[in-house]
Amino acid sequence: MPDEPTPSAHPGRPSTEGADTPRAPGAPDAADPAPVAAGAPGRGHARVRGGRGRLSRRAVLLALAGGGGAAATVALARGTAHAGPRAAPGASGSRADGLLARLTLDEKVGLLHGAPDPASLGQAGYVPGVPRLGIPPLRLADGPAGIRVRGTATALPAPVMLAAAFDPGLARAYGRVLGREGRALGQDVLLAPMVNLIRTPYAGRNFETFSEDPLLSADLVAELVRGVQAEGLVATVKHFALNNQERDRDSVDVRADDQTAHETELRGFEAAVAAGAGAVMAAYNKVGGVHAAESAALLTTVLRERWGFDGWVMSDWDAVHTTAGALTAGLDMEMPGGARYGAPLRDAVRAGRIPEAAVDRAVRRALAVRDRLGLLDQPPAARPARDAASGARLALRVATAGATLLRNEGAALPLTGPAARSIAVIGPTASVPFVSGGGSAHVVPDAAARPFDAIRARAGADATVAHAVGEDLFGRPLPPLVPAVDLDAVRVAAGATWSRTATLTTAEADEWTFLVHYSGTRPTVTLDGAELFPVRQGVAEFFAGGLLAAAPDGLAVRRVTLRLAAGDHTLAVTAPGGTDGQLFRLRAVSGADRAADVAEAVGHARVAAAVVLFAYEDATEGQDRTSLALPGNQRDLIEAVTAVNPRTTVVLNTSSAVTMEWLDRTAAVLQMYYPGQEGAAATTAVLFGDADPGGRLTQTFPAAEDRHPTAGDPRRYPGRDGIEEYSEGVHIGHRWYEKEGIAPLFPFGHGLSYASFAHEDLIAAPGEGGGVDVTFTVRNTGDRPGVDVPQIYLGASPDLAARGIDQPRSLLAGYRRLELAAGERRRVTVHLTARTLSSWSTAVGGFVLGTGRRALRVARSAADPGLRATVEVRSG
Ligand code: BGC
Fold first, then answer.
1. pLDDT greater than 80 at residue 25
2. Which pLDDT band holds residue 539 (cuts at 50, 70, 90)?
3. What is residue 716's three-state secondary structure?
4. CA distances in angstroms from 688 to 276, 425, 514, listed in the order given
5. What is the tens place of the pLDDT at every residue in 69-113?
6. 30 pLDDT band (50/70/90 cuts)?
7. DSSP code for 152
8. Less crowded by CB within 10 Å, the N or C end of the chain?
9. Considering the chain, what percentage of its residues have pLDDT values greater than 90?
10. What does the pLDDT look like over 411-448, one tens digit per residue?
11. Which residues partner with 838 through β-bridges?
């Protein structure tokens, strides 16, 4: 029997084993803390409701001292003004303090770093408790799209797909599923949500987060956090901050001015804090010359003093470089081990180099959150049972709501009439469902149907539905070797080592892909003396995609593509049995095999009334993409198939934006991202029109690799000499396309419904709290129910422009997701908050209301002229 797949943490990487490898000390703290002062932004901003805005002790002292301190109070109060149902923070202080008084130094230090879990459930992190005082251990599990433990869990659609629904209420429901399931699966802390913005289309983790847009991301993260914590699981908003790429992620030094940071990336974190997030994870990268996990500017000035965060800050995995530096900066907990916060911390306190009060402060913060969420209750609250059925229902709802129809020529979709009865289903992900992305976000579902089966079942018994793989992802058995040896299912006994050498003879020069599938330690395979699957350095070894890295039966997979000359080649294989024995196989795909797969697909496409072609792109944590084109042989496949059948719908299972050199040849394109365990059902429902495609793009799709906000300047991406400048400023995502006048392939906010909608009778007027109310009518002019997502884009403030404050030409200021029956009309009011109407003023050190006459439009996307109006924004 092959081992079960390795869903626990990162394959091969110790999860709760506490990697204590010491690191080089980090750079000194930035001498550039973010300002705490804020100007009076107009009465509209002072939305502080009784008791919600809590000031840190330092802020209170500053306020009492007057001057800058008073301004800090304003900023802080504003930071917490949107606080939701967060419990009164002060209430937990006493229990935490009571425990603190009884803890020894060793026990306190033990609460501030991870350690090996004696009863690991396969989760990423563990912090031992203090049994003598009834403090239970903490188990911390990834990740954003499901609870990542050993064994299976509900695999929800990737957050980028949730975001496509433009529905904060759905984000809360998603959070509740994560929260309940996390508790049920023995966890206390969720290492999610990720709220870093999509800044470059290449970033490997774009699927784990929401959007390029600060407002949308902020709305969604706040509701998701509320959902998770309503179930008693601590939410950890990550990765704080400016962690927008995987390339050089441990070392890249991001330079973003305060205005850029506060108006873009920081907004989501601020919203998560206001929603009561219990924990924040400090990122790997540097910001302004200092590692984020050691940045007082981020962890103290912004997070605690400006926003009033009262939870605890943990490091990303192995992201701590100093002991005193990190603790003083505001990092409370090191994960997953104790290289800096274990013995070095204890010794430094004993030697008087670090005051014990600094340790107490960190312990108090972590205990207070645990108390607030009931994790210190005695006796401990019973954990709920897993509710897999409701998790599956929500997964289906999100995958349908986020399904984004990008193109639909000649009403190719939904499939009806002959097109619904004669279908060629093509592509590897039609038969191996693409469920979940790679890296720490990967979740292994209880079950996931194959899209091909779902389509065949929906089409019915009278229909002809055929499948062709189109591109072979997992390889076929090798051609005969001399001497004969079958490498397609080799079992190696525990403790044994299996070795063979044989000759592979190729008749002509060709491009080959070799693949090894294995259940234990990766076999060593050499071809003509060169190692085919070497162990890679660093994180690259641990992270692989969510689709390509495991065979359908769960064996780990590595692959390599190379050109082979005609003739004899020596293949040598050595496989260790390890302690449990293992199963492995060596496979290959030749250029001739590739051509045969395309030819088979073309044969099916030619005789079918319609084609549904599943295309993939497999991103993962630990690496950025190097191209926006679909990988592998997919372009050739799409071109060959569309040449014989133009009624082709391409279903995309991709992490993020892809370029589509082949777009004009297709009839329809449906973006399904990584749709989770119910992807087959959701895709089928949308293809056949049982559900309206409810998603809209939360990131702009560029027309080409050189036409997007981070193209053309290595200082902007991926950085030069270790430094990366966010020189696009506040013009992230769709704002950049508008400013530069560059047409994207598909704009932010774009997505087609099967119905059609009219927007009418627009009025904009000053609203509550200094904001603006935008009222309009939405009418379903189609003959079927459908989803509309009107978006409100707001033009610049002339008054801020006069003060020299850079502003987006237009920014997303509000939106509403609506489901309307055929012919139904609805009057809608969308409130644009004072914060959304404000810009960061460096002179003031805070947000300033953007007063004056401002244009706005209700539109279908960032590029749609929409229905226009103007509004006079006044302070007070
Ligand atoms: C990732 C985090 C994750 C952690 C634990 C890190 O490599 O950046 O997002 O939560 O590992 O798995």
1. no
2. confident
3. coil
4. 41, 14, 38
5. 222 222 222 232 223 333 344 445 689 999 999 999 999 999 999
6. very low
7. -
8. N
9. 87
10. 999 999 999 999 999 999 999 999 999 999 999 999 99
11. 849
Instruction: Check whether residue 127 and residue 166 sit in a common domain.
Output: yes
* Cα 275 to middle of ligand 1, angstroms: 22
Number of domains observed in the structure of the chain:
5
Ligand 1 geometric centre to CA of 440 (Å): 6
Question: Quick check: 862 and 812 in contact, CB under 8 A?
Answer: yes
Whose CA is closest to atom 3 on ligand 1? 440
Q: Give the number of other Cβ atoms within 10 Å of residue 261's Cβ.
A: 24
Residue 610 belongs to domain spanning: 404-473+594-697
Residue 550: DSSP 8-state: B
- Residue of 45, 58, 188 lying closest to 117 (CA atoms): 188
* 124, 214: one domain: yes
Give the chain's mean pLDDT: 90
Q: What is the pLDDT, as a whole number, of residue 93?
A: 61
Q: Pocket of ligand 1, candidates 117, 121, 316, 443: which has the most ligand atoms within 8 Å of its Cβ, to mutate?
A: 316
Q: Is the CB of 246 under 6 A from ligand 1?
A: no
CA distance 543 to 558: 11
The reply to whether 418 and 367 lie within a common domain is no
CATH of residue 663's domain is 3.40.50.1700
Residue nearest atom 6 in ligand 1 by C-alpha distance = 317
Strands (E), 536-566: 556-564
Q: Is residue 1 part of a domain?
A: no
Nearest Cα residue to atom 11 of ligand 1: 317
**Edge-to-edge order in the sheet of strand 530-531:** 497-506, 567-576, 524-527, 530-531
Of all protein residues, whose CA lies closest to atom 8 belonging to ligand 1?
316
Q: Residue 81: what pLDDT?
A: 28
> Which atom of ligand 1 lies at the shortest distance from residue 283's CA?
8
Q: Verify whether ligand 1 is closer than 6 Å to residue 315 (CB atom).
A: no
Cβ atoms of residues 769 and 747 within 8 Å? no
Q: Is the pLDDT assigned to residue 804 strictly greater than 80?
A: yes
Per residue in 593-634, pLDDT tens?
Answer: 999 999 999 999 999 999 999 999 999 999 999 999 999 999
**Same domain (yes/no): 691, 559:** no
Give the Cα separation of 607 and 626 in Å (integer): 36
- The domain boundary, picked from 589, 623, 640, lies at 589
Residues 151 and 283 in one domain: yes
Q: What does the CA dihedral 328, 101, 373, 89 come to, rounded to 10 degrees?
A: -70
440 lines ligand 1 (CB under 6 A): yes
- Pocket lining: 229 vs ligand 1, CB cutoff 6 Å: no
Distance 505 CA to ligand 1 centre (A): 44
**Residue 396 falls inside a structural domain:** no
Distance from CA of residue 182 to its chain's centroid?
Answer: 18
Judgement on whether residues 738 and 749 belong to the same structural domain of the protein: no
Q: Is any atom of ligand 1 closer than 6 Å to the C-beta of 142? A: yes
- Burial status of residue 778 (CB atoms within 10 A of its CB: 0-12, 13-18, 19 or more): buried
- Does ligand 1 lie within 6 Å of residue 332's CB atom? no
The predicted pLDDT at position 411 comes to 94
Atom of ligand 1 nearest to the CA of 440: 12
Verify whether ligand 1 is closer than 6 Å to residue 130 (CB atom).
no
| pLDDT single digits (tens) 814-846 | 999 999 999 999 999 999 999 999 999 999 999
| Residues recognised as catalytic | 316
**Which of 359, 388, 417 is the endpoint of a domain?**
388
Q: Name the DSSP class of 414.
A: S
Q: Both 628 and 756 in a single domain? A: no
How far, in Å, from the CA of 96 to the mean position of ligand 1? 28
User: Do 769 and 685 share a structural domain?
Assistant: no
Q: Whose CA is nearest to atom 7 of ligand 1?
A: 317
Ligand 1 pocket check for 816: Cβ under 6 Å: no
Which protein residue has the closest C-alpha to ligand 1 atom 2?
Answer: 316
Question: Residue 239 pLDDT more than 90?
Answer: yes
46, pLDDT greater than 50: no
Residue 6 CA to ligand 1 centre (angstroms): 16
CA of 239 to the centre of ligand 1 (A): 9
